[in-house]
Specification:
This protein is α/β, with parallel strands linked by helices. It is built from 13 helices and 18 strands. It is 24% helix and 16% strand.
Length: 485
């Protein structure tokens, strides 16, 4: 069966045999809650537990100390929307419906509350982790940034398995932390205090508060909380009390704005303040789980959607945000796709442990299936990583991982990684075990291996009319002189 036909079949009313659905009975033990917190553009080394020295992240560091820290975990893509698509569907971007950020609707429509502004929608038949968990009896809520389809489109989060959504439907609107509205279960929620460009209500605080409300509301049944927070994606904006923690700590040349982003007098302090603000929200979630006696029955995962950005006044070099890797957001070198990842489940995950298991976003869906007793769909790219999280020795390994974006393609096979920055360029080849910074291209030294991995790259992409690979530009014909007169 073709992948597209499988997905369409799996998306019908009961999600078909792929889910092997059954309802919860009173005799069954309660299944674990799942909390998935997704930072936006947070670098691998932006957390203290991954080596950061300038930014304070005590709550996330504590999460790592109480759980497991993954050292070889990858995002779904180097940019936002496709990364989220792989997370929701278990498919890498050679097979997924969304392979780039693609805007639909009017660029300024969100200012008026139009539903037609957002990103390319995933199809209504799509099999998502939220649909699987909802069919398993979970309450499902998403709080933050969606990016997979506008309200009332096929990609509306409430058509993709979520009971509730609060936050930004459109990624473009999320370029400000002081919007004049957010979306609340399909309806515009106007923020009067932020009208006419006022900066009063900080969107992250509003979103984080709604996420806590969701936990309180569904504390007596299994729940899946998906919290794709927008921090630290630019624009650089933070409340004054957060900014005061860092102002004056280091040289901080002003950023004058541009390309749609706001200026900031102390951009480095602001970036650090934003990360610490998010860290505090993670702490609030953990504190609430403890208050409600839900800690021991809740798996909490924290990660980032891609590597750190270079835009909007951010300064990843100053913070060594992508250290020790090459590249940043938007690229398929390690700095664009390798991300911090932490999991905590008291009594089940060993405190203070680490794992070098090679994993990626498309592993989340099958992990949730195994965690909740669902049958794992066969025609996906993900592998459950639950054994690695629990420290078991029966963890299956990926044959390969694959990424693509804007004509860039990359594949990892064991310790080897091959990539090309355009389909017509030669493949670069790196041994990550010996060259984590991807500095020594071994393609010419190992031509047979480079050729084999190139073939794997070519085979791991299905065609896409919406997201085609770019074609090699053709040289313009030389100018010819006209006839003499």
């Amino acid at each position: 069966m073709r992948r597209r036909d499988f997905l369409r079949t799996a998306g019908t009313a009961t999600l078909g045999l792929a889910l092997a659905t059954r309802t919860l009975s009173a005799a069954e033990p309660r299944r674990p809650n799942i909390v998935f917190i997704l930072a936006d553009d947070l670098g691998y080394a932006d957390l203290g537990c991954y080596g950061q020295t300038r930014i304070k992240t005590p709550h996330i560091d504590s999460l790592a100390a109480q759980g497991i820290r993954l050292t070889q975990h990858y995002s779904g893509n180097p940019v936002c929307a496709p990364s989220r698509c792989t997370l929701m569907t278990g498919l890498h971007t050679g097979h997924a419906q969304v392979r780039n950020n693609k805007q639909v609707g009017g660029e300024r429509a969100w200012e008026l509350g139009f539903t037609g502004s957002g990103q390319h929608p995933i199809a209504e038949y799509t099999l998502t982790v939220a649909k699987i968990l909802k069919e398993a009896g979970y309450a499902t809520g998403a709080y933050g940034k969606w990016g997979l389809g506008t309200v009332a489109s096929s990609g509306d989060p409430q058509k993709q398995g979520f009971d509730h959504f609060y936050g930004y439907i459109c990624q473009r609107q999320a370029h400000t932390f002081y919007p004049n509205h957010l979306w609340n279960d399909g309806q515009v929620e106007w923020i009067e205090e932020n009208k006419d460009g006022a900066e009063v209500k900080y969107s992250h605080d509003l979103i984080a508060a709604k996420a806590l409300d969701f936990i309180r509301r569904y504390k007596d049944q299994p729940f899946f909380l998906y919290a794709p927070f927008t921090i630290p994606h630019v624009a650089l904006q933070a409340p004054q009390d957060a900014l005061d923690q860092y102002k004056g700590q280091w040289p901080d040349p002003a950023y004058d704005g541009g390309r749609g982003y706001v200026a900031h007098d102390t951009p480095r302090a602001c970036y650090a303040a934003m990360v610490s603000r998010m860290d505090a929200s993670v702490g609030s979630i953990i504190a609430l789980l403890k208050e409600l006696n839900l800690e021991d029955n809740t798996l909490v995962i924290f990660t980032s959607d891609n590597g750190p950005t270079f835009a909007g006044g951010s300064d990843p070099a100053f913070f060594s945000s992508a250290s020790p890797f090459r590249g940043l957001k938007g690229g398929v070198y390690e700095g664009g796709i390798r991300v911090p990842s932490i999991a905590r489940w008291p009594g089940r995950i060993k405190p203070g442990s680490t794992s070098d298991h090679v994993s990626a976003f498309w592993d989340f869906l099958p992990t949730c299936c195994e965690l909740t007793g669902r049958q794992i769909p066969q025609d996906i790219d993900g592998i459950s990583m639950l054994p690695a999280l629990l420290g078991r020795d029966n963890q299956k390994q990926h044959e390969y991982l694959y990424w693509e974006l804007n004509g860039q393609q990359a594949i990892r096979v064991g310790d080897w990684k091959a990539l090309r920055n355009k389909p017509w360029l030669d493949v670069e080849l790196y041994n990550l075990a010996e060259d984590i910074g991807e500095k020594n291209n071994l393609a010419k030294a190992s031509p047979d291996l480079a050729r084999r991995l190139t073939e794997m790259i070519d085979k791991n992409r299905t065609s896409s009319d919406v997201f085609p690979l770019p074609k090699k530009p053709q040289p313009k014909p030389a100018a010819t002189s006209g006839p003499s007169t």
